[in-house]
Write a structure and sequence with these properties.
The protein is mainly alpha-helical. Helix content is 50%, strand content 11%. Strands 1-5 form a two-stranded antiparallel sheet. The chain has a two-stranded antiparallel sheet with strand order 2-3. The protein has a two-stranded parallel ribbon with strand order 4-6. The N terminus is likely disordered.
Length: 208
């Protein structure tokens, strides 16, 4: 019976960003744009009856940030108020205007890991598009050269291992939580898809 009940959607603030693809980034309690919320930084929401309040908040956020912020309607059966989401109150007004900066050390670490994530996902996409062994070998050589120039070394094998290991998972989680922005050519959706490709490839390799 519960499965047939319509889900009452919430209203959230979203950054108008075509690079996010189907992964909509919404404002969280830390003032960052995230794909999903957590107990530490839940997504800020308004009930459907608070549409005027949500639109007013979007206007204040747009003005403060100098970027277009829009109201979107979303629902998720896994959301729990106070955990993944938090109903907006005046206590979260600062989140509309911006976010607190990370420490220099944390910002540097997040940037480094996000850059690796993006670069490695570019390699995975190129490898998955290779039509035959010769094309794959060419991608492998180009990847090794690029990784050596940017990170001091690396190979397709190490790229797949990193993306499917703890470091890759943590880097992706930081991006999805809005802790760090992507700066390369890939959208969040393309990065997520590349990581999934890497996981499937590693699974097949281990099975063979």
């Amino acid at each position: 019976m519960n499965a047939s009940m319509p889900l009452d959607p919430y209203l959230l603030l979203s950054l108008a960003d075509p690079r996010s693809g189907s992964h909509v980034r919404c404002l969280n309690a830390a003032g960052r744009w995230a794909i999903h919320g957590s107990a530490h930084s839940p997504l800020l929401v308004w009930h459907s009856t608070q549409a005027d309040d949500a639109r007013a908040a979007a206007e204040r956020s747009s003005k403060a940030r100098g970027r277009a912020v829009e109201v979107v309607s979303r629902g998720d059966s896994s959301w729990v108020e106070g955990q993944q989401i938090q109903v907006f109150t005046d206590a979260f007004e600062a989140a509309l205007h911006g976010h607190a900066a990370h420490s220099e050390a944390k910002a540097r670490r997040l940037r480094t890991e996000a850059d690796k994530l993006e670069a490695f996902c570019v390699v995975v996409r190129a490898a998955s598009a290779a039509a035959d062994h010769a094309a794959f070998a060419e991608v492998s050589r180009a990847a090794s050269k690029a990784l050596r120039a940017k990170f001091g070394g690396g190979s397709i094998t190490s790229v797949f291992a990193w993306l499917t290991g703890r470091a890759g998972n943590e880097a992706l989680a930081s991006v999805l939580a809005g802790e760090v922005e992507l700066t390369g050519p890939l959208s969040i959706q393309q990065v997520v898809e590349a990581v999934e490709l890497a996981k499937k490839a590693e699974f097949l390799r281990e099975e063979s």
